[in-house]
Every structure is written in C-alpha cells, then in structure tokens.
Amino acid sequence: MLKAPSRNQIDTLLKYYQSKNYIKTKKFALSLTENFPNHEFAWKILSIVLKKTGKISESLIASEKLVEIKPQDALANYNLGNTYKELAKFSKAEESYKKAISLKPDFSEAYYNLGIVSKNNSKLEEAEKYYKKAIHLKPNFAEAYNNLGTVLENLGKLNDSKIYYKKAIALKPNFADSYSNRGFILNELKRLDEALISLDHAIALNPDNANAHANRGVTLKFLKRLDEALVSFERASSLNPDMDFLLGELSYTRRSLFIWNNYQKHLKELINKMYE
C-alpha cells in the first residue's frame, strides 16, 4: 500500500485549490486523507479550505490531525493556535502558540497572537510583554505597535500609548484603526484639535469605521460643536448599533441641542421685542 499520494494527485489538489474551486478541493483532499491518513499535505489543504469556507470547527479537526502527524512543525502548531483563537478557545490557543515558539523562538507572529489571547483574558501586563517581544523580533510590525498602544491605553499609560499609535501610523500610513485610536487618546489628553485631525484622517481612510465616527463625536462635543457631534454619533450608531456608550451620547447631545436651540429662539424673540 502506498504511504503518500502521487505527484499527479498532489498537482491535482493544488490545481483545484489555486483555481478556488473549494468544493472539488475539499472532496479531493478528503479522499487523500482517507487513502493516506498520515501524509500531511492533504490535511493542510483541507484545514485551509474548511476555514476559508467558514467551517471553523471542521477545520480544527484537520489542524489537530496535522499537528498529530507533525508535532515538531512550528507553523502547524501556530495555525492550530489561530483556529483555537477563532473558536474562542483561548487557553488551547495559548498552548499552541507557546509550542510554536518553543520550536521557532523568533516567531514574531506567535508572540503577537499570544498578546491578543492575553488581552482577551484580561492579562494586560502579559499582553504588553508579548507585543513588545513581537516588535523586538519584527521592528516593522505595525499591527503589534497598534495593539500594544491599546493595551497601554487600558493600563492608563496614555502618553506611551500615543507614541505606539504614532509609530504604527509611521510604518503603515493607511492604518485607519491607529488614527482612530490615536484620536481617542488625544481626546483623553484634551488635545482636541489634534484629535479631530487624526479622526478625520481615520474616516477618510475607512468611512465605515464606527469607532472613528464615535470618537469624532466625542471630540466635537468637547468643542461644543453639537450639531456635528450628533451627525457623527448617528453615523457610528448606524454602523454599529451595539456600541454601549452611544445611546447615552446620542441622548445627551440631542437634549443639549434642544435646550440650546430653544435658548437661541427665545433670545432672538427678546431681541426682536426690544426693537419693536
């Protein structure tokens, strides 16, 4: 009995995959895993295709099998960690990422994802450590700078957070999320004009960034530009109705506008009577 698929069979599987015919790819990969259960290539393609077609739980089975076949493969362990992370199995994801790092100590992406898992588990100091390690290994890692900024923000280190957002933007000038995050920090530091510039840039890069619109609304509210603030809050709410604080902001801004408009109306009436 053959222990591995033929060159022709591997080429056929690759042809289906590269042509994005995922139905045929899945069917053919499954047949290869049945005939050659200990050959890693078909399991690898199967795990990728299942993930691409949204079948994450099924993809997990293939990813676990791949690690069983090749336990010393750093990338296989890393990909298994990613699948666990997508399924919110964070403890298992952490184990897989740490295994990948033990096999490949300079695996910056594994450290980065350990940072994500740690933050999701509210282990902010650990997340800070992992993001810094990822940056040390890969100094141009814009996403790691951005996520480190978020962790430092949650730790109350606002000035440090701002520095890392700025670095992320320098590395990736079209990084809308970093512009939005930096705008939020500048709001907190009461540097409102700078905040507005950063948030406008975020929205120009990604008009559907709900956080940027919400943060812009906060900035405009602080600047007493309530009409514009209301537009931003309403836009954010339309993009993401589940943002908890928006309900309060919308209510406050509408009420403030109503009071202000009534005041302006009565003031105008008083002035008109003075000159009758």
What's a concise summary of this model?
This protein has 276 residues and is mainly α.
> Residue share in helices?
over 70%
What does the main sheet amount to? none
Number of strands: 0
What's the helix-strand series?
HHHHHHHHHHHHHHH
Terminal Cα span: 106 Å
Number of helices: 15
Taking all residues together, what is the mean pLDDT?
91
Indicate the structural class: mainly alpha
Low-confidence stretches: none
Q: How would you sum up the global shape?
A: elongated
Gyration radius from CA atoms, angstroms: 26 Å
How much strand? under 5%
Layout of SSEs?
Blueprint: H1 7-18, H2 22-35, H3 40-52, H4 56-69, H5 74-86, H6 90-103, H7 108-120, H8 124-137, H9 142-154, H10 158-171, H11 176-188, H12 192-205, H13 210-222, H14 226-239, H15 244-274
Helix pairs in contact: 1-2, 1-3, 2-3, 3-4, 4-5, 5-6, 6-7, 7-8, 7-9, 8-9, 9-10, 9-11, 10-11, 11-12, 11-13, 12-13, 13-14, 14-15
